[in-house]
Amino acid sequence: MIANQIRYLSMGKIRLEGIEVMVRIGLLEEELYAPQDLQVSLEVEYDFSLIAESDEISRGIDYRDIVSCIREFSKEYDGKTLERYADFLANNIKSTFNANRVRLIVDKPRYTKKLGLKQISVEVEC
């Protein structure tokens, strides 16, 4: 197929799973004094047509920049609930990268064994 006859994608998704971050978050007194481990997974939907046509990362979203954004946001964050953290982070990513949609899952492994659970997580989409 000749290059000018190729049909470029219009929408696509970047999926990143298990980004490890340290966040000051929690309701219990012990949680408020020291950051705790969370894992962030997300799906970022945006228009792939420019990067598909040019094959230049500058025309799309570099997943390394998403990871850096998540880690920087997490380092600065100070709050009580996973729901708020996830909502603020998802909206920050959506606006920073001009994404059409962001689906984000935050896992909090710290209390799973203590509560007899396999997983504690929240999921948001914006």
Fold and architecture overview:
- Helices cover 35% and strands 33% of the residues.
- The chain has 126 residues and is α+β, with helices and mostly antiparallel strands.
- The chain has one domain: GTP Cyclohydrolase I, domain 2 (2-Layer Sandwich), CATH 3.30.1130.10.
- It has a five-stranded mixed beta sheet.
- The relative contact order is 0.19.
- The model has no long low-confidence stretch (mean pLDDT 90).
Pick out the low-confidence regions. none
Q: The biggest beta sheet, please?
A: 5 strands, mixed
Distance from N terminus to C terminus (CA atoms, Å) equals 38 Å
Strand order of the largest sheet: 3-1-2-4-5
**What letter string, H or E per element, gives the SSE order?**
EHEHHEHEHE
Strand tally, please?
Answer: 5
- What's the CATH architecture name? 2-Layer Sandwich
The class by helix and strand makeup works out as alpha+beta
Strand content: 25-35%
Number of helices: 5
Given this structure, which CATH class is correct? Answer: Alpha Beta
Helix-strand blueprint:
Elements: E1 11-25, H1 29-33, E2 36-47, H2 49-54, H3 63-76, E3 78-79, H4 82-96, E4 101-107, H5 112-115, E5 121-125
Kindly summarize this structure in a few lines:
It contains 5 helices and 5 strands. The protein is an alpha+beta fold and 126 residues long. Strands 3-1-2-4-5 form a 5-stranded mixed β-sheet.
